[in-house]
Design a protein that fits this description.
The structure holds 2 protein chains of 2 kinds. Chain A is an all-beta fold. Chain A contains no helices and 10 strands. In chain A, the strands form 2 sheets. In chain A, strands 2-10-9-4-5-6 form a 6-stranded mixed β-sheet, with no helix packed on it. Chain A starts with a strand and ends with a strand. By secondary structure, chain B is an all-beta fold. Helices cover 0% and strands 58% of the residues of chain B. In chain B, the strands form 2 sheets. In chain B, strands 2, 4, 5, 6, 9, 10 and 11 form a 7-stranded mixed β-sheet that branches. Chain B has a 4-stranded antiparallel β-sheet with strand order 1-3-8-7, with no helix packed on it. Classes of the chains: A mainly beta, B mainly beta. Chains A and B meet through strand 4, strand 5 and strand 9 of A and strand 5, strand 9 and strand 10 of B.
Protein backbone atom coordinates (compact mmCIF):
# COMPACT_ATOMS: atom_id res chain seq x y z
CA UNK A 1 0.00 0.00 0.00
CA UNK A 2 1.04 3.59 -0.64
CA UNK A 3 2.12 5.48 2.49
CA UNK A 4 1.63 9.20 2.97
CA UNK A 5 4.04 11.29 5.02
CA UNK A 6 3.84 14.94 6.01
CA UNK A 7 6.42 17.48 7.06
CA UNK A 8 6.81 19.17 9.36
CA UNK A 9 4.77 17.39 12.03
CA UNK A 10 4.17 20.76 13.67
CA UNK A 11 5.05 24.38 13.16
CA UNK A 12 4.65 27.69 14.91
CA UNK A 13 4.59 30.90 12.88
CA UNK A 14 3.59 34.53 13.26
CA UNK A 15 0.42 36.10 11.96
CA UNK A 16 1.03 37.14 8.37
CA UNK A 17 3.76 34.56 7.72
CA UNK A 18 3.77 32.31 4.68
CA UNK A 19 3.48 28.69 5.74
CA UNK A 20 4.05 25.57 3.63
CA UNK A 21 3.23 21.97 4.51
CA UNK A 22 4.50 19.08 2.40
CA UNK A 23 2.84 15.71 1.82
CA UNK A 24 4.80 12.95 0.13
CA UNK A 25 3.52 9.70 -1.33
CA UNK A 26 5.70 6.58 -1.18
CA UNK A 27 4.90 5.88 -4.84
CA UNK A 28 3.65 7.94 -7.75
CA UNK A 29 -0.02 8.76 -7.39
CA UNK A 30 -2.55 10.62 -9.47
CA UNK A 31 -3.64 14.17 -8.73
CA UNK A 32 -6.40 12.77 -6.51
CA UNK A 33 -4.91 14.33 -3.39
CA UNK A 34 -6.98 16.32 -0.88
CA UNK A 35 -6.12 18.59 2.04
CA UNK A 36 -8.29 18.86 5.16
CA UNK A 37 -8.29 21.26 8.09
CA UNK A 38 -9.33 20.01 11.52
CA UNK A 39 -9.81 22.31 14.48
CA UNK A 40 -9.82 20.87 18.01
CA UNK A 41 -13.03 18.99 18.81
CA UNK A 42 -14.40 19.44 15.30
CA UNK A 43 -14.81 17.30 12.22
CA UNK A 44 -12.31 17.73 9.38
CA UNK A 45 -13.15 20.20 6.63
CA UNK A 46 -12.19 19.77 2.98
CA UNK A 47 -9.93 22.62 1.83
CA UNK A 48 -8.43 21.51 -1.47
CA UNK A 49 -9.03 18.61 -3.84
CA UNK A 50 -7.35 17.43 -7.03
CA UNK A 51 -4.11 18.72 -5.49
CA UNK A 52 -4.83 22.38 -6.24
CA UNK A 53 -8.58 23.08 -6.55
CA UNK A 54 -10.31 25.10 -3.81
CA UNK A 55 -13.39 23.72 -2.15
CA UNK A 56 -16.19 26.29 -2.21
CA UNK A 57 -15.88 28.88 0.56
CA UNK A 58 -12.20 28.29 1.33
CA UNK A 59 -10.21 31.53 1.74
CA UNK A 60 -7.91 32.34 -1.15
CA UNK A 61 -4.86 32.46 1.15
CA UNK A 62 -4.86 28.65 0.95
CA UNK A 63 -3.32 27.05 -2.14
CA UNK A 64 -2.18 23.60 -3.21
CA UNK A 65 0.56 22.44 -5.52
CA UNK A 66 2.44 19.42 -6.74
CA UNK A 67 5.99 18.52 -7.73
CA UNK A 68 6.41 14.84 -8.57
CA UNK A 69 5.36 12.80 -5.52
CA UNK A 70 5.44 15.88 -3.28
CA UNK A 71 2.26 17.87 -2.68
CA UNK A 72 2.18 21.20 -0.87
CA UNK A 73 -0.39 23.19 1.06
CA UNK A 74 0.52 26.85 1.40
CA UNK A 75 -1.08 29.49 3.57
CA UNK A 76 0.05 32.79 2.07
CA UNK A 77 -0.64 34.90 5.17
CA UNK A 78 -1.27 32.95 8.36
CA UNK A 79 -4.31 34.08 10.35
CA UNK A 80 -5.36 33.22 13.92
CA UNK A 81 -8.32 31.28 12.52
CA UNK A 82 -5.89 28.95 10.72
CA UNK A 83 -4.72 27.31 13.97
CA UNK A 84 -5.55 23.67 13.28
CA UNK A 85 -4.14 20.33 12.21
CA UNK A 86 -3.87 19.77 8.46
CA UNK A 87 -4.09 16.37 6.80
CA UNK A 88 -3.47 15.21 3.26
CA UNK A 89 -5.28 12.20 1.80
CA UNK A 90 -4.98 10.20 -1.40
CA UNK A 91 -8.40 9.35 -2.72
CA UNK A 92 -7.80 7.71 -6.09
CA UNK A 93 -8.31 4.15 -4.84
CA UNK A 94 -8.47 2.14 -1.64
CA UNK A 95 -6.90 2.33 0.85
CA UNK A 96 -7.74 6.05 1.04
CA UNK A 97 -4.76 6.82 3.24
CA UNK A 98 -4.36 10.01 5.26
CA UNK A 99 -1.05 11.62 6.12
CA UNK A 100 -0.16 11.83 9.84
CA UNK A 101 -1.07 15.49 10.09
CA UNK A 102 0.70 18.82 10.62
CA UNK A 103 -0.24 20.96 13.60
CA UNK A 104 -0.11 24.71 12.95
CA UNK A 105 0.06 27.20 15.83
CA UNK A 106 0.55 30.94 16.14
CA UNK A 107 3.87 32.07 17.63
CA UNK B 1 -28.27 21.96 3.55
CA UNK B 2 -26.15 18.80 3.58
CA UNK B 3 -26.22 17.06 6.94
CA UNK B 4 -24.67 13.84 8.18
CA UNK B 5 -25.55 12.78 11.73
CA UNK B 6 -23.85 9.80 13.34
CA UNK B 7 -25.28 7.82 16.23
CA UNK B 8 -24.77 4.52 18.02
CA UNK B 9 -21.50 5.15 19.79
CA UNK B 10 -20.91 4.21 23.41
CA UNK B 11 -18.91 2.04 25.75
CA UNK B 12 -18.61 -1.61 24.76
CA UNK B 13 -16.59 -4.52 26.14
CA UNK B 14 -13.78 -6.09 24.12
CA UNK B 15 -15.03 -8.83 21.82
CA UNK B 16 -18.55 -7.40 21.63
CA UNK B 17 -20.35 -5.79 18.70
CA UNK B 18 -21.76 -2.35 17.98
CA UNK B 19 -23.55 -0.76 15.02
CA UNK B 20 -23.08 2.86 14.07
CA UNK B 21 -25.57 4.78 11.95
CA UNK B 22 -25.19 7.91 9.84
CA UNK B 23 -28.40 9.67 8.81
CA UNK B 24 -28.08 11.83 5.70
CA UNK B 25 -30.24 14.72 4.56
CA UNK B 26 -30.16 17.71 2.23
CA UNK B 27 -28.97 15.86 -0.89
CA UNK B 28 -29.70 12.80 -3.04
CA UNK B 29 -28.30 9.98 -0.91
CA UNK B 30 -28.31 7.42 -3.71
CA UNK B 31 -25.98 9.53 -5.85
CA UNK B 32 -23.02 9.29 -3.47
CA UNK B 33 -20.57 6.85 -1.99
CA UNK B 34 -19.64 7.15 1.68
CA UNK B 35 -16.70 6.56 3.98
CA UNK B 36 -16.18 5.86 7.63
CA UNK B 37 -13.10 7.54 9.09
CA UNK B 38 -11.97 7.22 12.69
CA UNK B 39 -9.71 9.15 15.03
CA UNK B 40 -8.29 7.62 18.18
CA UNK B 41 -7.92 10.01 21.13
CA UNK B 42 -5.09 12.45 20.42
CA UNK B 43 -4.21 10.73 17.14
CA UNK B 44 -4.62 11.39 13.43
CA UNK B 45 -7.31 10.40 10.97
CA UNK B 46 -7.58 6.77 9.86
CA UNK B 47 -9.70 5.71 6.89
CA UNK B 48 -11.85 2.71 7.82
CA UNK B 49 -14.26 1.75 5.03
CA UNK B 50 -15.96 2.88 1.82
CA UNK B 51 -19.17 1.91 0.07
CA UNK B 52 -20.09 2.84 -3.48
CA UNK B 53 -23.25 4.82 -4.29
CA UNK B 54 -25.17 1.69 -5.28
CA UNK B 55 -23.69 -0.56 -2.61
CA UNK B 56 -22.02 -2.84 -5.16
CA UNK B 57 -18.46 -2.16 -4.01
CA UNK B 58 -16.96 -1.99 -0.53
CA UNK B 59 -13.41 -1.45 0.64
CA UNK B 60 -11.88 -1.84 4.11
CA UNK B 61 -8.69 -0.91 5.91
CA UNK B 62 -6.60 -3.95 6.80
CA UNK B 63 -7.03 -3.10 10.49
CA UNK B 64 -10.80 -3.78 10.34
CA UNK B 65 -11.15 -6.24 7.45
CA UNK B 66 -13.19 -9.26 8.48
CA UNK B 67 -14.50 -7.54 11.61
CA UNK B 68 -16.34 -4.45 10.29
CA UNK B 69 -19.03 -4.26 7.63
CA UNK B 70 -20.19 -1.09 5.90
CA UNK B 71 -23.70 -1.02 4.47
CA UNK B 72 -26.39 1.40 3.42
CA UNK B 73 -30.17 1.58 3.39
CA UNK B 74 -30.99 3.82 0.47
CA UNK B 75 -34.74 4.18 1.18
CA UNK B 76 -33.82 5.38 4.69
CA UNK B 77 -30.92 7.61 3.55
CA UNK B 78 -28.77 5.92 6.18
CA UNK B 79 -25.24 4.53 6.26
CA UNK B 80 -24.14 1.90 8.75
CA UNK B 81 -20.98 0.44 10.21
CA UNK B 82 -21.39 -2.93 11.88
CA UNK B 83 -18.42 -3.52 14.16
CA UNK B 84 -17.72 -6.91 15.69
CA UNK B 85 -14.90 -8.50 17.70
CA UNK B 86 -14.10 -5.05 19.01
CA UNK B 87 -10.67 -4.35 20.45
CA UNK B 88 -9.28 -1.63 22.69
CA UNK B 89 -7.48 -0.18 19.67
CA UNK B 90 -10.85 0.44 17.97
CA UNK B 91 -11.54 3.15 20.55
CA UNK B 92 -12.03 6.33 18.53
CA UNK B 93 -14.39 8.99 17.28
CA UNK B 94 -16.02 7.59 14.15
CA UNK B 95 -16.98 9.99 11.38
CA UNK B 96 -19.08 9.32 8.30
CA UNK B 97 -18.10 11.36 5.27
CA UNK B 98 -19.58 11.83 1.82
CA UNK B 99 -17.48 10.90 -1.22
CA UNK B 100 -17.76 14.09 -3.24
CA UNK B 101 -17.46 14.48 -6.99
CA UNK B 102 -17.90 16.93 -9.82
CA UNK B 103 -18.33 16.76 -13.57
CA UNK B 104 -16.30 18.61 -16.16
CA UNK B 105 -15.38 18.13 -19.82
CA UNK B 106 -13.55 14.93 -18.83
CA UNK B 107 -16.63 13.50 -17.15
CA UNK B 108 -16.80 12.24 -13.55
CA UNK B 109 -14.10 13.45 -11.12
CA UNK B 110 -13.89 12.51 -7.43
CA UNK B 111 -13.04 15.31 -4.98
CA UNK B 112 -12.44 13.64 -1.63
CA UNK B 113 -14.66 13.77 1.45
CA UNK B 114 -16.62 16.98 0.99
CA UNK B 115 -19.03 16.69 3.95
CA UNK B 116 -18.50 15.11 7.35
CA UNK B 117 -20.69 14.29 10.30
CA UNK B 118 -19.89 15.49 13.81
CA UNK B 119 -18.62 12.06 14.87
CA UNK B 120 -19.65 9.49 17.46
CA UNK B 121 -17.32 8.15 20.16
CA UNK B 122 -16.78 4.43 20.55
CA UNK B 123 -14.94 3.30 23.66
CA UNK B 124 -13.90 -0.34 23.91
CA UNK B 125 -13.13 -1.15 27.51
CA UNK B 126 -13.88 -3.78 30.11
Amino acid sequence: DIQMTQSPSSLSASVGDRVTITCRASQAITNYLAWYQQKPGKAPKLLIYAASTFQSGVPSRFSGGRSGTDFTLTISSLQPDDVATYYCQKYDSAPFTFGPGTRVDIK
Amino acid sequence: QVQLVESGGGVVQPGRSLRLSCAASGFTFTSYGFHWVRQAPGKGLEWVAFIQFDGTNENYADSVKGRFTISRDNPKDTLYLQMSSLRAEDTAVYYCARDGYFYDSNGYNPKGNDYWGQGTLVTVSS
